[in-house]
Amino acid sequence: MMEETRTRTAQGLTTLPTETVHAIVNPVAGSGRPARAWPAVRRRLESLGLRVEEVHTTEPGAGIALARQLVERGARELLVIGGDGTVNEVVNGCVDAQGQPIGPVTITIVPCGTGRDFPRLFGIVRPEQAVDLLRYGQRCRVDIGAIRFRACDGSSRQRYFVNMADIGLGAETAAWVSQSTKQLGGFLAYLVGAMRTILRHRPAELTIEIEGTTVFRGPALMVALANGRFHAGGMRIAPMASVTDGKLEVFALRHVSRFALLGSLLPAVYRGTHLGHPAVEHWTARRVAVRSVEPVRIETDGEVVGTTDIEAWVAPKALSLRVPRGACDGSA
Ligand SMILES: Nc1ncnc2c1ncn2[C@@H]1O[C@H](COP(=O)(O)OP(=O)(O)OP(=O)(O)O)[C@@H](O)[C@H]1O
Asked: What sections of the sequence does the record tag as coiled-coil (predicted)?
């Protein structure tokens, strides 16, 4: 038994944690889904003998400081009860400015958000899965993206993203979804948001540099920087993306008519068949810069954080995540 435990630990396979599990709950994620789903999961964990302590986020951004305080006080197991925005905040609290974890902490996601694109990569789609993740899951180190951008007050800021950062059309959609239609549920909320944004959005003059070389200059509707494969409630925007390859997939959408966007590109991106369309450019990069003549909105993991210009890069293996066995590369 001891031998088995040693082997499982060496492979990153875990048994029930012996230390206290600290739950960070965003009560407003997924239009209040945590209140419906989390209490039963907590009761089940406690019935298995786990000690669970719970804190709630009280405002946007609060998850960063909560996670940082918990890890600095010695927390080793964090449960994140919320959506991708909450996971984003917790990860930003757990990683320092150099892309290093501030402590030996592992994050387990209890998916309760609207889009839930990040946990979907690992096949984590139901809140109840947290119980099996803690019992039989596997600890994996995965990449996160880092982005330097212009904040609303004009200062230069750095932030991490776990799944996707995007400039232009996607950020406008995220801004609208976060203020209006979340109760529709992930897929529908983002579909309605994307259609509405497409009808209003104008292209911007952008320059894209990959590893210091200019690869694109001209009008574009959107640039997406993908660590994970899914976006906006299930769009298969980056079918080739891997969270363990140390790289970002970069997409630019050239200026095309609204008719082409709504009629062919939007349906294609849900199927992952948009690559090869003449309006879609794609590069793989360790470092990317996007500059614009006028400021263009950006979002990270579904929340608008600022505007261009941006620089982005990968913080390899900066996040320790508990996932189902065999799902480390996020291709579930
Ligand atoms: N108490 C709170 N009141 C208001 N907003 C909050 C509170 N706590 C956290 N937030 C904010 O709620 C926002 C949405 O959270 P989150 O992204 O986790 O859910 P979601 O948008 O429903 O899911 P997804 O990102 O998966 O689509 C985040 O920007 C977060 O900063």
From this structure: none
